[in-house]
Amino acid sequence: MSDSDDLKKQAALAALDHVEPGMKLGIGTGSTAAFFVQGLGERVRGGLDIIGVPTSERTAKLATAEGIRLTTLDETPHLDLTIDGADELDPSLRLIKGGGGALLREKIVASSSDRMIVIADGSKLVDQLGAFPLPIEVNHFGLGATLIAIEAAARQLDQPVTLKRRLASDGTAFVTDGGHAIIDASFGLIREPEAMNLALAAIPGVVEHGLFIGIATAAVIARPDGVIWLHA
Ligand SMILES: O=C(CO)[C@H](O)[C@H](O)COP(=O)(O)O
What we know:
Blueprint: H1 3-16, E1 24-27, H2 31-45, E2 51-54, H3 57-65, E3 79-84, E4 88-89, E5 95-96, H4 103-111, E6 113-121, E7 134-138, H5 143-156, E8 162-165, E9 181-186, H6 193-201, E10 206-209, E11 211-212, E12 218-223, E13 226-231
Parallel strand pairs: 1-2, 1-3, 3-6, 6-12
Antiparallel strand pairs: 4-5, 5-11, 7-9, 7-10, 8-9, 12-13
Helix pairs in contact: 1-2
The structure holds ribulose-5-phosphate.
């Protein structure tokens, strides 16, 4: 296992200690979340009784293979805790998510939970968000107009921006679980994440974007010198 995978696993297992019998859990997406799913599966097979809502089809498959009982937000609209990774987080627990393209379901699930614990290796903790391009999930209809509106929003906030349509590994256009496209927006460091959050959310063709503000309640970050916790 690579050093970075080892840190991801350490963060995932530290968060696992906060899972209690009877909990309704949101289950994240990505390589760090996959370590959490593996650990959770082991505990479930050892008798832990929980139920989970997966944040992607990929996670649903993984969790099912681990023997984790799954439900939907339609059946279980209120969750106790969501555990998920992030592409970047700052010390105020503002996040960039969506590197794996699951940001819409991830935001819906985390927002339906009392608490969200972010699990990450130390490379994800930054002073200021934005080195990682912000994933923006957009409707296919009117895509050209939506791109122009995103550029206009960036100009208003005095942020430069380069937009790239995300491609899948086979070179075809990436399509999310919800059937939408992803635009990766490089703004450089985001000076005002709250203002960016509102500006992007106000664009009709934007289905959701990967800035998570006021959602995470804690983060467990594994670094070579040990595991640290941040709290909102
Ligand atoms: O937001 C996500 C998926 O949409 C992931 O949580 C994020 O991309 C981090 O992934 P990884 O743990 O593989 O670094």
